[in-house]
Amino acid sequence: MIKPDAVKRNLIGEILKRVEKSGFEIMDLKMLKLSLPQAKRFYRVHRGKPFFDKLVKYVSSGKVVIALLKKKNAVKDLRELIGSTDPEKAKKGTIRRDLALNTTENSVHASDSPKNAKIEIEFFFK
After folding, report:
1. What does the alpha-carbon distance between residue 119 and residue 96 come to, in Å, rounded to a whole number?
2. What DSSP letter does each residue of 23-75 carry, written as one string?
3. Domains of the chain (ranges plus CATH)?
4. Residues 12-25: pLDDT tens digits?
5. Residue among 77, 59, 63, 103 nearest 19 (CA)
6. Calpha distance 96→103 (Å, rounded)
7. Minimal CA–CA distance to 19: which of 103, 82, 113?
8. Based on C-alpha coordinates, what's the Rg of the chain?
9. pLDDT value of residue 126
10. What's the DSSP call for residue 22?
11. Active site residue 46
12. I need a surface site. Which of 12, 98, 107, 123 has the fewest CB within 10 A?
């Protein structure tokens, strides 16, 4: 997912270019605006954590771009490409280190496991 801060800053092309240069195939792509209830449902795994309300408010604040990607070891490789949630801790050259504004407005989301990838794909690409 390309999050609202990156969409507003016209970084969709830059992020997708990095994804493709890293060997991912874009299988499907869509732009949408999540409602607050949809954002809460999507991030339900974080319900009860201190950052939950701020996260769902932010991700439902503007348009996002959802990409369905394909590559061998896709989850692991994409997590390496995007970097740590905190851009200050992310490795140089990662999307979050180079483009994110802060820990909340960190430009992108990626599934953290193959199991969650299946759940998230079903959520957006029924």
Report:
1. 23
2. T-EEEEEEEEE--HHHHHHHTGGGTTSTTHHHHHHHHTSSEEEEEEEE-TTHH
3. 4-124 (3.30.70.141)
4. 999 999 999 999 99
5. 77
6. 9
7. 82
8. 13
9. 84
10. T
11. no
12. 123
